[in-house]
Amino acid sequence: MRIVLVGPPGAGKGTQAAFLAKNLSIPHISTGDLFRANISQGTELGKQAKAFMDAGNLVPDEVTIGMAQDRMAQPDAENGFLLDGFPRNVSQAEALDEALKADGQKLDAVLDLEVPEDEVVKRIAGRRICRNDSSHVFHVTYSQPKQEGVCDVCGGELYQRGDDKEETVRKRLDVYHRETEPIIDHYKAQGLVVTISALGKVDEVTKRAMAALAGENA
């Protein structure tokens, strides 16, 4: 299957993408991984992206699209892929349509993870990260440490990242509504969008997504 995963920040796209890709035996292709791989490998596209990033500018769509096309052309993506974080806007979606069409391919589904805005803010603003190891993540509501402000794993100080503060989260949501959300209408016109609730436990959402992709009632 060839799938695009969409949803607001805090919808759990990265987590669901990993589980869905494993269940479907297709590669999980995320924008962040594409950038890191191309930059670390010193590819021409990676060099272009790094130059823009170093200058504090956004990487142009054509560079991002080029990276995605190269990755989708790899042997492990022959039978499908799951795109996470790409396309990010309508122009990228249109470019993806053209690229797939040129290869005689098409998307099978666009999975839209739906989460109420207040829940997104609660999820992200409640996160607390360990200063010693950023992989140690807690939450003031959903995954509380035994001692407030102290990491259960190593005893390090827990803190709230600047981009997790409520004001910043709401700005990120504004960007999502303005730039990315319109791709849902773009794909609805093609009959590709499958919308599911991303509320609940991770495995519940995964089962819901698998059922929806299979055409069953989610």
TrEMBL record:
Range of residues in the leader sequence: none
Pathway(s) of this molecule: Purine metabolism; AMP biosynthesis via salvage pathway; AMP from ADP: step 1/1
Matches recorded under PROSITE patterns: ADENYLATE_KINASE
Catalytic activity: AMP + ATP = 2 ADP
EC number: 2.7.4.3
NMP: annotated span: 30-59
Residues annotated as domain Adenylate kinase active site lid: 127-163
InterPro entries assigned: Adenyl_kin_sub, Adenylat/UMP-CMP_kin, Adenylat_kinase_CS, Adenylate_kinase_lid-dom, P-loop_NTPase
Enzyme class: transferase
Residues reported to bind AMP: T31, R36, N57, L58, V59, G85, F86, P87, R88, Q92, R161, R172
Keyword annotations of the record: ATP-binding, Cytoplasm, Kinase, Nucleotide biosynthesis, Nucleotide-binding, Transferase
Subunit structure, interactors included: Monomer.
Family: Belongs to the adenylate kinase family.
Protein's name in the database: Adenylate kinase
Species in which this protein is naturally found: Streptomyces flavofungini
Name of the coding gene: adk
